[in-house]
Amino acid sequence: MRLPRLFRTTVFRLSLMYALAFSILTAVVLGFVFVSTQNYLTDRITETLQTDLATLLEPDADAAESKGGRDTHDLIDRIKEIQHFDRTRGGIVALSDPAGKILAGNLLHWPQTVARTDGTARFDINDSAIPPALRQRSDDFDVLALVHALPNGNWLLVGQQLADEEDLSEYIGSLFILALFLITLIGLLGGVVMGRAALKQIDQIRNAAQKIARGDLTERLPVHPKRRNEFDEIAIELNLTLDRINALMKGMREVTDNVAHDLRSPLNRLRTRLEVALLDHRQLLPCQNILNESVEDLQGILSTFNTLLSISQAEAGIQRIPFSPQDLSALCRDMGELYEASAEEEGLGLLTDCPTPLRVLGNRDLLAQALSNLLDNAIKYTPRGGRITLSTVKLDAWAELRLCDTGIGIPQDQYTHVFQRFVRLDTARNLPGNGLGLAQVLATITAHRGEIHLSDHHPGLCVQILLPLIPTEQ
Amino acid sequence: MNILIVEDDTRAAHYLNKGLSESGHQCDLAADGETGLHRAITGQYDVLIVDRMMPKLDGLALIAAFRAAGKTTPVMVLSALGEVDDRINGLRAGGDDYLVKPYAFGELLARLNALTRRAQPSGGNPGNDTLTVADLVLDRNKHRVTRAEQRILLQPREFRLLEYLMRHADQVVTRTMLLEQVWDYHFDPQTNVIEVHISRLRRKIDRDFSLPLLHTVRGAGYRLGIVPED
User: Fold this and answer.
1) pTM over 0.80
2) Which of A75, A426, B67, B96 has the fewest CB atoms within 10 Å distance of its CB?
3) What domains, with CATH codes, occur in chain B?
């Protein structure tokens, strides 16, 4: 069951292909070395034989007669001399007359397979010309011979039995085959080992993924702390994805709970009011009031509902919202103008200081809504006589927006808490609002790949928003 | 007005019909896109109300086909899809205005009036550079507002606000319509920022005169005109 899966792994297949390619390459190299060695050995022996031949034919210094060479008797003597101390080397020497009759040497007759022409020849040791006593060994091997025609028509043959050389060749050959076998085996084993290692990691990832698929969103794919191979990289990416999904799911759950509370209460109020009105047949007068109150309740419910939708829209991310280049400063001046009247009405000074154009990629309506929520808050939570300042400035690659007020502020330990949906601090309970404003701001800023920070303004609150600037061409 | 309602939700269409009839309009109903398109092309209507998601032929396709037939009747698109790009798609397909469900009936009524007013130049004289309501006169060229010959100084935005109100004189204009048309924002502010701008404008054009012109219509919006409706 396990092996077939192993064979299917990419790592194993790659290893197999490498092992195969390596084996072929090794075979070619070793074959070349083998043939070269053979040739080298043959060449060396041929050289020795040529020296032997030359020695035999060398003119004698003592008998430097005018004949200019050796006569047959002389040669026969020399051959016998060589034969005498060359018994064990496996050397072969023969002198024959033109008809093929052996005049001297250790052959019984001229070898059957060797033509009487000048040059090298190779013949089998089993040739009947070789007397059994002369053989180096009893097994099968070749004899390398040099044939030379003498001026008087006789033929001289010097040769060498190749038992040792062929042994060496066979030995080298078998070594090479063994090496080839080992290389292939190691390649295959490597493939199996690496394939199994990869499979092990994939199995771990698969097990984790199955747990996640079963609904355990807190489970994470295993990542080796040091190794960081490509599987780890993928696991890290997937884990980040899971973190986001988990956070979204958690958010969804919280929203469901809060929606249940914040929408059910007014819906229930609405229903009770209408039912009571239906029960009360005779009392016709307050009908208009009941309807008015009901419409107001519905308006509140719808506004909460719309804000929730707008938050999830922003959270759904950049791909679902049309983004285009916006001048954040112009937007701030615009919004400052829209809210200036409201601030003045509440006895507050709203100062807008956004002189430099700051180009960011964004959605105007979402940004305006976020800014409107922040301005609403600032106006709502700042007592009469206070000041609100809205300013933008370029901060490296960021557009910075600061909105500071002199209001009641937010306790430092609540800075993260206030961005959650439906959160209303105790200080705000008696003021109108649904606790969704800052959640909408955070969702919008996150969708714009920006950051939002709160800080104490002593007194009051400072909201800092950072949005990435569109890089300029220069 | 003669209105064609193309809406597959029959109960919604029924209430819409009732409300519009009570406001003095004549309505025809079509329950799917194909019937709607047929009626729209063959009939004579002042305005079309088209739902986006319908059987047989969806709202946007209907509008596209209607416009392809050379018709210029204003179309109001209704949709439960409220996403930012849906509104843009709706307008791009040839719709003239877009309302997200659930909408306030008053909002729909005000917008229908604004649509037909835009389509019939006789009412508001949009080509004219001078707008007049009672003794209030707005001169676009000179960028000048007078009431009873007295000069009234307005901020640029107040000028645009008044201009829009005067173009839609005697019509109810909702807060969202003002936010969209005067400020070019498409979102729902939590508090009523528009109200403050209206009261400032009212102080400037109404305070020193005996006849109030800028009225608040409860639960709906504002109306500029000589006689308050209720």
Assistant:
1) no
2) A426
3) 2-119 (3.40.50.2300), 130-224 (1.10.10.10)
